[in-house]
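Troubleshooting entry. The earlier prediction with 2-acetamido-2-deoxy-beta-D-glucopyranose gave an output that would not parse, so I re-checked the input for stray whitespace and re-submitted. Clean input:
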Amino acid sequence: MHFSYFLLKQGVNMSNGERIFWLLIMLLTMFMYGATNLSCDYGSNLKNQLVAHCDNRGFISVPRNLNRNIQVLDLSNNLIPVIKNNTLINYTKMEILILNSNNISEVHECGFEGLRYLRILRMENNAINISKLPSRVFRPLENLMVLEIGWNEKQWMEHESFVYPDKVFSNLKSLQNLSIDLFDRPVFGNGFKLLQNLAVLNFRRCYMRKHGKLSNETFRNISPKLRELYITRCHHFFHIDKGILRYFPELKILDLSHSYIHLYQALNILYPYQNKNMSVINFHHISDKSINNDKFPYSVIITKELMRYLRSICIEALDLSATGIVDDEFYSLFSFQYPGCFKTFIISANRLPSTTLEHYMQTVVFLTRATNLKTYDMSYLPAQFLNPLYLDVYHPEKFIGSHNQEKQHIFHQSFPYNY
Ligand SMILES: *[C@@H]1O[C@H](CO)[C@@H](O)[C@H](O)[C@H]1NC(C)=O
Ligand SMILES: *[C@@H]1O[C@H](CO)[C@@H](O)[C@H](O)[C@H]1NC(C)=O
Ligand SMILES: *[C@@H]1O[C@H](CO)[C@@H](O)[C@H](O)[C@H]1NC(C)=O
Ligand SMILES: *[C@@H]1O[C@H](CO)[C@@H](O)[C@H](O)[C@H]1NC(C)=O
Ligand SMILES: *[C@@H]1O[C@H](CO)[C@@H](O)[C@H](O)[C@H]1NC(C)=O
Ligand SMILES: *[C@@H]1O[C@H](CO)[C@@H](O)[C@H](O)[C@H]1NC(C)=O
Ligand SMILES: *[C@@H]1O[C@H](CO)[C@@H](O)[C@H](O)[C@H]1NC(C)=O
């Protein structure tokens, strides 16, 4: 582009014929730049890998003449509609391929041929119908550790369940992180058993319908080594069988934030973790005004019975904010067996009574025993507060979705206190 600009400037003092000649040269140059690999920039990343930056270039196909030694190819935000057979076959050293935000609706059977060393494949926000992926499409990717294929085509399932194409995924023997959309009444077939190293399952867009269901059997083929499970932003109430987590004895992070499944159901599925250690339980905003009936009332009174599992888990960071709690029986909410495990405890945006001396004393006793607590937030945010700020349970020094990093101390108190 700099080259063309130079020609244009030179053209200013020329005759018309010369100018047209140079303009033609310039157009030709631009055409060549556009038609070949030259519009990608090369660089290297922190790991000293050769990176081709081809994002936001208007590509409608994978560029063919890039340096064959590239290890990272960023093709995000282009207009590629299809990954054709053997189109990446000469980039044999590739480790990271980013195809997010294209228009991909089709991947040919040999689309990823040759990518034997690929470790990370990101293809979110495309138009892929995962049911239409050829069953052998991921076969070359025997070393793939991370697959992100969420925010793709919605699946049509009128009444029955959605069967994930387990044959397709079963080839990914090294997979550790999987991000994918969650469809209602999901069935993860036997093929998922072969993903023995799966550690992180992150459901992206949630299509759970009103009165949908995750059952005791849903995750039976998912690896027992799973450490992190994210089922977030499901805005329709659905049923969860008590035993859904029984396949995951090693789970360390459970994030159900913004899924309106109600605190009753969320607390009930925690039984496999009694007397175990967990890093994060995020129940932020799992009760919502839109769910309010006799069985699942919007106003929740915490009882000993409800707390029986949660209280016996050693948790580093717990988020119970905006869960509809209005009151707690004595020796329930603050009766944790391992208060010393807490580093972060967020219970803001509820309507807990702090007016009675007994309630206040309960809290004080808990806080005294929670000797490792660094962040404690029980601020009361009135419902009419338009844009409440919530602390991020993973990074309690930050607010969720807030660019304003400045802390507002009315919402946030730091511990330990000196008594
Ligand atoms: C891609 O390759 C597979 C296997 O060789 C073949 O069956 C298929 O027809 C090819 N697809 C296209 C669109 O050429
Ligand atoms: C890969 O390299 C071979 C041999 O150099 C060439 O014929 C072929 O067109 C290349 N394929 C692509 C997709 O660039
Ligand atoms: C995306 O692909 C569809 C066909 O799958 C096509 O109709 C549409 O025009 C494409 N959009 C863009 C922006 O290229
Ligand atoms: C996805 O593909 C499956 C299998 O070909 C098909 O039955 C289904 O209708 C497709 N879904 C959409 C939304 O096009
Ligand atoms: C895989 O998941 C873990 C845990 O969420 C995360 O820390 C890591 O960055 C992920 N890996 C990649 C390459 O995205
Ligand atoms: C699911 O599993 C739990 C715990 O094992 C059991 O109590 C419950 O009855 C089961 N529910 C169904 C619907 O099978
Ligand atoms: C659980 O955490 C506690 C306190 O942080 C620690 O002492 C204990 O060793 C941990 N137990 C296991 C099984 O990791």
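This one parsed fine. Residues 216, 241-243 surround 2-acetamido-2-deoxy-beta-D-glucopyranose (ligand 6) (CB under 6 Å).
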